[in-house]
Design goal:
The complex is a heterodimer of chains A (about 120) and B (about 110). Chain A has no helices and 11 strands. Chain A is mostly beta strands and about 120 residues long. By secondary structure, chain B is an all-beta fold. Classes of the chains: A mainly beta (about 120), B mainly beta (about 110). At the A-B interface, strand 5 and strand 10 of A face strand 4, strand 5, strand 9 and strand 10 of B.
Chain lengths: ~120, ~110
């Protein structure tokens, strides 16, 4: 158990719909990362927040958005869903944010499996 | 580019050594990591190496870093069936907040 929780575990929805995925980081961790893992794309970095502020953006679509709340939990919102959005979505947390000071170990949650029909 | 590349599959016999390779593109990478993903689970950090090191050993795991060729490898000694998983290398770069993950190598250990 990494200490990172994600809900829901599974989500099945239809094209055009909107969903929200939730992540609670490990106690004391200030950084939250979101990743998308699909069979053909591998693990894609989407976005990172540090202490409530966006720090880095990866391959995140405009239909997707995220935020980190004052209690440090984070939500990833996916809208106008398409079949190709079906994937595993992982949240990870770390105590700090990599940058000029170097890297920090990321602890991954168990993931949310999203199926778009 | 930002690619971190790995071979997709590796198959070894139980008790043999496994070597998983990774190439990265950015010479300013500060930390390089190896993560393990078991079926149905998230990624778990196995080990990491700072970019000014050439080698790091941790029990059955040995990480080798060739900065000149931007090549990272993970050697697993005495590979066990429980080592069957997907292994990801990753890098974090000085001056950015991004982690770049490789494509993952699926290791299959044959009994």
């Amino acid at each position: 158990d990494s200490g990172v929780t994600q809900t829901p575990k599974h989500l099945i929805t239809a094209t055009g719909q909107r969903v929200t995925l939730r992540c609670s980081p490990r106690s004391g961790d200030l950084s939250v990362y979101w990743y998308q893992q699909s069979l053909d794309q591998g693990l894609q970095f989407l976005i990172q927040y540090y202490n409530g502020e966006e720090r880095a953006k990866g391959n995140i679509l405009e239909r997707f958005s995220a935020q980190q709340f004052p209690d440090l939990h984070s939500e990833l919102n996916l809208s106008s869903l398409e079949l190709g959005d079906s994937a595993l979505y992982f949240c990870a947390s770390s105590v700090g944010a990599s940058g000029t000071s170097g890297g920090f170990e990321q602890f991954f949650g168990p993931g949310t499996r999203l199926t778009v029909l | 580019g930002e690619d971190v590349e790995q071979s997709l599959f590796l198959s070894v016999r139980e008790g043999d050594s496994s070597v998983i390779n990774c190439t990265y593109t950015d010479s300013s990478s500060t930390y390089l990591y190896w993560y393990k993903q078991e079926p149905g689970a998230g990624l778990q950090l196995l080990t990491y190496i700072f970019s000014n090191m050439d080698m790091k050993q941790d029990q059955r795991l040995t990480v080798l870093l060739n900065k000149k060729d931007k090549h990272l490898s993970l050697r697993i000694a005495d590979t066990q069936t429980g080592d069957s998983a997907i292994y990801f290398c990753a890098e974090s770069r000085s001056g950015t907040y991004k982690y770049i993950f490789g494509t993952g190598t699926r290791l299959k250990v044959l009994a």
